[in-house]
Amino acid sequence: MPKSDKGMEDKTERVNILRLTAESTSEIEDVVVRESPLTIVLNDQELVTLLCSPADQKNLAVGFLYSEGLINSRDEVKSVTLHEGTGVIRVETESGEELAREALFSRLITSGCGHGASFYSATDITGEKVESLLQVSVSEVLALTKEFQHRSETYRATGGVHSAALCDTKNILVFSEDIGRHNAMDKVFGECLLKDIPTDDRLVITSGRISSEILLKVARRNVPILISKSAPTSLGVKMAEELGITLVGFVRGKRVNVYTNNHRITSDGK
Amino acid sequence: MPKSDKGMEDKTERVNILRLTAESTSEIEDVVVRESPLTIVLNDQELVTLLCSPADQKNLAVGFLYSEGLINSRDEVKSVTLHEGTGVIRVETESGEELAREALFSRLITSGCGHGASFYSATDITGEKVESLLQVSVSEVLALTKEFQHRSETYRATGGVHSAALCDTKNILVFSEDIGRHNAMDKVFGECLLKDIPTDDRLVITSGRISSEILLKVARRNVPILISKSAPTSLGVKMAEELGITLVGFVRGKRVNVYTNNHRITSDGK
């Protein structure tokens, strides 16, 4: 059975396994990434249970509520209290009970692992396009992505987590990991919200595929450039186009694919 | 903008992109995996919108409803009707409106991308352990996994989908792909349900990481052996142990890791 590993901030556990080949059997100790349920209670009403990596839970809860449109600024958050033992996090907001009811109703309609179909029928999801004069060179994208990949210690140990980061054109400013790619992104934006870190005119990098849900999170924070070493989906490309976001995918080796709004990516020397 | 590619069953789209290196810029055509919203309407009530690959939608809808415990057998399904243009699939069940209301209530409590915390506190999630005398050799696991990887054409074209399959010890019996690893698994089990394909004493292979939600889907179909080339999470390992499921991970090259219930995996010649 898993034992906790304090050395990596409780993000991994050691397990005894059998390693088999056609010819040999050996009993070894392996490291797996931790997964824990986190139940968000918003103004005394149970809202949702996320399956996540048990670290940075406050950032996750606040980022999730922001992404889902249940809070709109830091000022609305009165308190965030994590109850470690039970996996419950309680968030109190200014608007109180009324918001929670509205939230539950909203979940009821959109619910599940997606959003309501109405969210996907038009460009007016977020109200407006992302406007930004930010530009970044191919070399800067490659350098940031390289640094980003070096940061993920848990992935190297377990092969089981996603990462996300907020950057300027030179440096990683906020970095998070989680077993879920949506959670990793929400942790980054939750930290930005709680620490008043601006996201306008900045870049976001994700280790995961770029689907429509990731685009919506990024658009909601007005981030003009989104980078991944993985592939985008068709709806991700369509939304990036419509939302004015520069989508850079398949950053591998020395080349990048720019899917949309390529005016923000410059060749070096230009 | 994406154009549909009929050649791959509408699972991919072609997009015009810029490919950049530090020295060069070229305009090329790339292929991305399609992502579409699918809204499941159960007995005239909108239940959930899944973001998925637009193929095998009937299998997905039925598999999803089964995994969520909203249907328990094929006999309960009166009709499944896909409305291609609108991305809506209507499922009618024997229990009718009463079930839909119950379903919505259930989503309201557990909701989100996870399940309620109560689901995770005990072993009695599914009522009982998976019992099966099935055994498979390391060589058979390696051969099945190799065949499984060869089957995923969409992944090779786009780098953007997950696959899942039901197998016996020699052959792949049911194979599905989707942008989501949960959806790929639900498509497999939906097809099994609709075609009366037994899942007892069989194996499931997934391309994705093995988290608790995947374990719950597999346990609900009484599948004794679960195989992935990726990593499991700690909760995935704990649930597999408790549910009597043999969990095989990190199938790479010529070796496999067996995390739980290793009596079902034999070295060759044993």
Quick gist of this model?
The structure is a homodimer of 270-residue chains. With 270 residues, chain A is of the alpha/beta class.
Query: Whole-Å distance between the termini of chain A?
Result: 57 Å
Any low-confidence stretches of chain A, pLDDT <50, length ≥5? Answer: 1-7, 105-124
Dominant shape of chain A: flat
Largest sheet of chain A: 6 strands, mixed
Q: For this entry, what is the oligomeric state of its chains?
A: homodimer
Q: CATH homologous superfamily of the largest domain in chain A - what is it?
A: Cytidine Deaminase, domain 2
> How many E strands of chain A?
15
The SSE order of chain A reads EEEEEHEEHEHHEEHEHEHEEE
Spatial strand sequence of the major β-sheet of chain A? 10-9-11-12-13-14
Architecture of the largest domain in chain A in CATH? 3-Layer(aba) Sandwich
Chains forming the largest contact: A-B, 80 and 80 residues
CATH class category of the largest domain in chain A: Alpha Beta
Structure description:
The structure is a homodimer of 270-residue chains. With 270 residues, the first copy, chain A, is of the alpha/beta class. In chain A, the strands form four sheets. A six-stranded mixed beta sheet of chain A has the order 10-9-11-12-13-14, sandwiched between helices. A four-stranded mixed beta sheet of chain A has the order 5-4-7-6. Chain A folds into three domains: 3-33, no CATH class; 36-112, Roll (Ubiquitin-like (UB roll)); 136-266, Cytidine Deaminase, domain 2 (3-Layer(aba) Sandwich). The first copy, chain A, contains seven helices and 15 strands. Chain A starts with a strand and ends with a strand. In chain A, β4 and β5 form a beta hairpin. Chain A has helices at 57-67, 97-110, 138-151, 153-158, 181-194, 212-220, 234-243; strands at residues 3-4, 12-20, 25-33, 36-42, 45-52, 77-83, 88-93, 136-137, 162-167, 172-178, 203-206, 225-228, 246-252, 255-260, 265-266. In chain A, α6 (212-220) packs parallel to α7 (234-243). At the A-B interface, β2, β3, β4, β5 and α2 of A face β2, β3, β4, β5 and α2 of B. β2 (12-20) of chain A pairs antiparallel with β14 (255-260) of chain B, so a sheet runs across the interface.
